[in-house]
Amino acid sequence: MKIVVTGASGFLGREVCLAALRRGHEVVALGGSRAPVIPGVTQARSFDLCSASALEALVLEEFPQAVVHCAALPTIEACLANPAQAAALNTEVPKKLAQLCFHLGAKLIHVSTDTVFDGVAGNYQPTDQPAPLNLYGETKAAAEVEVLRFGREHAAVLRTSPIIGNSPSGERGLHERLFVAWKTGQKVALFTDELRQPVEVTNLADVTIELCERGNLSGLFHWAGTEALSRHEIGVRVARHFGLDAAELVRAISRAEVPTAAARPRDLSLRLHPLAGKLRTPAQTFDEQLTALRVPRGCEDWYEKVTGRKVVRRLEKGIDF
Ligand SMILES: NC(=O)c1ccc[n+]([C@@H]2O[C@H](COP(=O)([O-])OP(=O)(O)OC[C@H]3O[C@@H](n4cnc5c(N)ncnc54)[C@H](OP(=O)(O)O)[C@@H]3O)[C@@H](O)[C@H]2O)c1
Asked: Where are the alpha helices (DSSP H) in the chain?
């Protein structure tokens, strides 16, 4: 199957390309400002998805059987810094892709986020009503509506949770952000009463490709790990996994101690039903996710000094995993 992957220079998109190759598919990898450099991918280029006419020409020229759409402004901060770009990339581009895929009869996998919910109730089902608390969630929730409007029969919207794993930059994964703070001497304050349900990046990537392959699976789905954990527990378990002193590196705080916390979703746990029962790719426990993690690039010296353990250095940035 020929699969176009957007956001392929990013954290998830890169792994989606690798998962597609592992499963024997042909990949066209699109980065944004950066051309993706991914072992085994021969068709890779930088491409501005916000140019609707260029996007149409590209999709018609490539004529893929599936598109996995990972490109986004994927943080609250990035969306607030550039609201027009957030609306264009997070909402208008998926809408255009859904129209084009409908026209071609191609499958569209649109990656969405737990942040479409307000976090009041938690344990969300795919049928629960989104109620975003911030611009990022708003633009992603609007995209879900558009994608399903054009693609109810052939599109899958996949809502997911904070992604853990080894990123090309060494700074996008959940554990990597902790390491970056730890190596600069910060004791990181993490909420004991804010819940998230992490997912490991290669597991999530496998699910996107399995969805491409399964023509009958369309609609709105959730995918994450099997466990909802407090941010504090995530930090403690990451530290312990790497043999670090969690008491030295992580500080427990409650939302009541931080006035701005009320504006953040409290519990974004997701129910994986019905997708979990339909896929070969299993949802992972947090312990299983931890086994995939490496000491982030740039943190090796600090880690060796603190633990006395030796770290195998990896190759040049971006091309060795
Ligand atoms: N990361 C998480 O924890 C998380 C959690 C839940 C959901 N998600 C969702 O998962 C998806 C992937 O997130 P991610 O963490 O992999 O993001 P990421 O690492 O920040 O990657 C974003 C990608 O979008 C590309 N891009 C940005 N502007 C573009 C444009 N105008 N045209 C074409 N491409 C453009 C970037 O390209 P360049 O860098 O080359 O410019 C990059 O490849 C997103 O839909 C996000 O909402 C992520």
From this structure: 11-22, 52-62, 76-81, 83-87, 93-104, 135-151, 174-183, 201-213, 231-241, 246-249, 286-290, 300-307
The atom of ligand 1 lying closest to the CA of 34 is 40
Q: Do residues 17 and 63 both lie within one domain? A: yes
Ligand 1, CB cutoff 6 Å, lining residues: 6-7, 9-13, 31-34, 47-50, 70-72, 74, 89, 111, 113, 140, 160-163, 172
Residues 212 and 304 in one domain: no
Residue range 251-291, pLDDT digits in tens: 999 999 999 998 899 999 999 999 999 999 999 999 999 99
Return the C-alpha torsion angle 197, 265, 295, 44, nearest 10. 90
> What's the whole-model pTM score?
0.97
What is the secondary structure of 21-38 as a DSSP string?
HHTT-EEEEEESSS----
pLDDT at residue 320 is higher than 90: no
Total domain count for the chain? 2
